[in-house]
From TrEMBL:
TM ranges: none
Organism from which the protein derives: Aphanomyces invadans
UniProt lineage: Eukaryota, Sar, Stramenopiles, Oomycota, Saprolegniomycetes
The protein's name in its UniProt record: J domain-containing protein
GO biological process, one term: protein folding
Domain spans labelled J: 24-77
Keywords recorded for this protein, A-Z: Metal-binding, Repeat, Zinc, Zinc-finger
Listed GO MF terms: Hsp70 protein binding; unfolded protein binding; zinc ion binding
Length: 216
């Protein structure tokens, strides 16, 4: 069934989910715990501009910076892992709040949770400084766990549940190519090595930046 290849299980994840420790947020933003709201905002803008994905920044680092800034704005953020079947068909979980209360959190029926999507519960965040009756949001960052592989029967069953993919326009002389895992770190090291070898080669040949041997 669904859960055999979508990774279903106990919808509550085996126990209450706990908010993450907020001490790391100050480190992410590069500010001390005594920093003012203005200093935090200034640090966030500087880091966000530097690390924005549209400017070639790291998407994961940019997300961490944004999460850290939102948390300091009164929102309480924690990460929740859910299976693919829960993301597609709904889930429920018990959240243990910092004040000791337990919240029974449910997704909206029929709504699909996307990987790295943020959802919020109004009024369950941190109290506003000087006004404890005004609170931020309880924000949940969802991490959807996908199955590593499917059997042929499971793939067929899955296809029957969704609209068919777009029809492929075939090319007679096209060669088949299969995807493999991409190791970004290994590729980076290889590119660095190739650049180094290229510089070495130009140096030996007396190219730009190289030293030519004078004829006697």
């Amino acid at each position: 069934g669904f859960e055999s290849f979508f990774g279903g299980g106990d919808a509550r994840g085996g126990g209450p989910s706990k908010p993450v420790d907020n001490s790391a947020y100050y480190e992410t933003l590069g500010v001390p715990k005594t920093a003012s709201a203005a200093d935090i905002k200034k640090a966030y803008r500087k880091l966000a501009l530097k690390n924005h994905p549209d400017k070639g920044g790291d998407p994961e680092l940019f997300k961490d910076i944004t999460v850290a800034y939102e948390r300091k704005g009164g929102n309480l953020i924690f990460e929740k892992k859910i299976s693919l079947v829960e993301a597609l068909t709904g889930f429920e979980t018990i959240v243990e709040h910092l004040d000791g209360r337990h919240l029974h959190v449910k997704s909206v029926p029929g709504e699909v949770i996307k990987p790295n999507q943020f959802k919020a519960i109004q009024g369950e965040g941190m109290p506003q400084h000087g006004n404890p009756y005004v609170k931020g949001q309880l924000v949940i960052l969802f991490k959807v766990e996908f199955p590593t592989q499917l059997t042929s029967a499971q793939a067929t069953a899955l296809k029957s549940l969704f609209p068919p993919p777009a029809r492929l326009t075939r090319v007679t002389d096209a060669e088949e190519a299969y995807l493999t895992d991409f190791d970004a770190e290994a590729a980076k090291q290889q590119a660095s090595q190739e650049a180094y070898d290229s510089d070495e080669d130009r140096g030996h040949r007396g190219g730009p930046g190289g030293v030519q041997c004078q004829q006697q």
